[in-house]
Amino acid sequence: MYDSGDIVTLAHGQYRLREQLAGSAYGLIWRADGVAGGAVALKLVNREQMERAPAGVRMRWRECAAREIAFLSSLAPWDARHIVRLLDHGEHEGLP
User: Fold this and answer.
1) pTM, whole model, 2 decimals?
2) What confidence tens digit (pLDDT) does each residue in 67-86 have?
3) N or C: which terminus of the chain has fewer CB atoms within 10 Å of its end residue's CB?
4) Long-range Cβ pairs for the range 85-90 (8 Å, 24+)
C-alpha cells in the first residue's frame, strides 16, 4: 500500500506522493511532486490487487501497462495535445 509522503523512484526521477486522486482494480492515480519540482499525476499499479490476482491476470496487467507506455511514448507533441503527456515510466518495487 502506498501512503502520502512515500517516494517513488522511476527511470527519470523521484516523486513524492501527496494525495490519491482515483483508483481501480488495476491502478491508483496519485497527485505527486517531482523531487526536482513540479506537480504530476502518477499512475501506479494497485499492489494489493496485483498480489491477489492469478498469474495470468498479473501477466495481462503488465502487458497492458507496457502497451499504454508504448502508445503514450509514440505520440508526437501535436498528437498529445489533448492526452496526458508521458514524462516518466519504469518499475517501482518490481511493479510497472
Assistant:
1) 0.81
2) 999 998 898 877 767 888 88
3) N
4) 87/12, 87/40, 88/10, 88/11, 88/12, 88/13, 88/15, 89/10, 89/11, 90/9, 90/10, 90/11, 90/12
